[in-house]
């Protein structure tokens, strides 16, 4: 038994040693290349914003942990961030609201993640660049040609396909979003979909979807990594790019193309109100006494039990808060077609059968089990603590009506399917 534990530990250390040497080789190659654009180094830029090397290394250690790497990788993560200026990035806006870019870039006191995103060699980003019209089209064409096979393509927004794609035309030649996306994806080393619109079609694809808006993975002919969320957290965006810079591969993905390091746990599993859920303490109406006391938001529609994301850890607004902390339930924005499948947002789920891309396999299958286990009038499918609370008449909420309680079971299996995508 002892020997077998030792053997396991040896093989784990061997695995990480190999991974580290893979990362070091990759970083060496990148270091030998020239920056795509000249300018101050990352550390100079960070210092200019009052960020010390010590803060930067703390961030690198946290990011290594977020990427499920041992903390001994912090040096490699820091070096990868410093070498982000070696890999060109082309960022397209298709049918969307620009909320993802806004969320990433428009903060009055930028986080380390946003400062690092600023440092990336962004060759083309319509919201950020000064050029417009002919000039911007020329920049896009030149960048795609000059960096063919080497650039990361990031896409925000869905692709309208109805009427020959004419619901979205861009630039002086009125090229459709579909045309531009296909062309840009052809020459990309890796394709990253940013936000609910690009990953699953977003609100544009909500029923009845008059423009036949599609997620980008249904349009391009290569692996797409989905950074789901509306908007997604900047740490998930930066972490995914860093993973690519570190290893030259996409991270392991779940069955919906999301990086497992960020989307392998349900919001419910990491929620600060989880103790309230287990104790059977539920907000019944917004503004009631339970709401003031920070009770669980399930009965006012929280979709945390069905949603895979790390919002509870990364948070938003300079990592200060997130919807559940602010008193509104999760709306499930990182799940496929959430506009249709999670609505109505302020009512608890009852029965729910997902129509996932793999026919209910993967992450959705996990969520299905929860949905199917929901309580109706008297059926009970709830965690042990909550059952105890109910049977003891101890289901603490001022306006509670036990007979109508609707709470999910706590079956907890992570059935996300791991796939390793390796772009050229
Ligand atoms: S995912 Fe949400 S925030 Fe991002 S562009 Fe789409 S609607 Fe806007
Ligand atoms: S139901 Fe929502 S508020 Fe309640 S514990 Fe789960 S995630 Fe948190």
UniProtKB/TrEMBL annotation:
Q: Report the locations given in the UniProt record.
A: Cell envelope
> What GO MF annotations does this protein's record show?
3 iron, 4 sulfur cluster binding; 4 iron, 4 sulfur cluster binding; electron transfer activity; ferredoxin hydrogenase activity; hydrogen:quinone oxidoreductase activity; metal ion binding
Q: Which residues bind [4Fe-4S] cluster 2?
A: 268, 271, 296, 302
Q: Name one GO cellular component term.
A: cell envelope
One GO BP annotation of this record: anaerobic respiration
The main location is: other
Domain Cytochrome-c3 hydrogenase C-terminal span(s) in chain numbering: 263-345
Q: Which domain of life is it from?
A: Bacteria
Q: How does it assemble?
A: Heterodimer of a large and a small subunit.
| Family statement | Belongs to the [NiFe]/[NiFeSe] hydrogenase small subunit family.
Protein name listed in UniProt? Quinone-reactive Ni/Fe-hydrogenase small subunit
Q: Which organism is it from?
A: Desulfurispira natronophila
């Amino acid at each position: 038994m002892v020997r077998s534990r030792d053997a396991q530990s040896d093989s784990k250390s061997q695995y990480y040693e190999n991974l580290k040497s893979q990362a070091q080789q990759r970083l060496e190659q990148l270091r030998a290349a020239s920056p795509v654009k000249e300018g101050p180094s990352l550390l100079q830029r960070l210092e200019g914003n009052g960020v010390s090397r010590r803060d930067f290394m703390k961030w690198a250690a946290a990011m290594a942990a977020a990427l499920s790497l041992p903390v001994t990788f912090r040096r490699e993560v820091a070096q990868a961030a410093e070498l982000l200026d070696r890999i060109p990035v082309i960022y397209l806006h298709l049918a969307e609201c620009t909320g993802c870019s806004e969320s990433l870039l428009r903060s009055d006191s930028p986080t380390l993640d946003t400062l690092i995103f600023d440092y990336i060699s962004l060759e083309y980003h319509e919201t950020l660049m000064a050029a417009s019209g002919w000039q911007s089209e020329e920049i896009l064409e030149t960048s795609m040609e000059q960096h063919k096979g080497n650039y990361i393509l990031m896409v925000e927004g869905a692709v309208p396909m109805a009427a020959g794609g004419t619901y979205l035309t861009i630039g002086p030649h009125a090229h459709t979003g579909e045309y531009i996306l296909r062309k840009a994806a052809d020459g990309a080393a890796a394709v990253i979909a940013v936000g609910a619109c690009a990953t699953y079609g977003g609100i544009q694809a909500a029923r009845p979807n008059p423009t036949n808006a599609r997620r980008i993975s249904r349009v391009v002919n290569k692996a797409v990594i989905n950074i789901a969320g509306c908007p997604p957290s900047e740490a998930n965006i930066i972490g995914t790019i860093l993973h690519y810079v570190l290893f030259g591969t996409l991270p392991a993905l779940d069955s919906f193309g999301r990086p497992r390091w960020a989307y392998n746990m349900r919001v419910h599993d990491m929620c600060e109100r989880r103790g309230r859920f287990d104790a059977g303490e539920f907000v019944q109406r917004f503004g009631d006494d339970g709401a003031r006391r920070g009770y669980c938001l399930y009965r006012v529609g929280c979709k945390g039990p069905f949603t895979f994301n790390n919002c509870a850890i990364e948070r938003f607004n300079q990592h200060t808060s997130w919807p559940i902390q602010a008193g509104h339930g999760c709306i499930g924005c990182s799940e496929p077609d959430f506009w249709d499948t999670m609505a109505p947002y302020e009512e608890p789920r009852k029965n729910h059968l997902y129509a996932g891309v793999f026919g209910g396999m993967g992450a959705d299958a996990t969520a299905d089990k929860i949905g199917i286990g929901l309580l109706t009038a008297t059926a009970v499918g709830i965690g042990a603590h909550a059952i105890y609370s109910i049977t003891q008449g101890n289901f603490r909420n001022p306006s509670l009506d036990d007979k109508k309680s609707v709470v999910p079971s706590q079956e907890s299996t992570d059935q996300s399917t791991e796939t390793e995508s390796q772009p050229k």
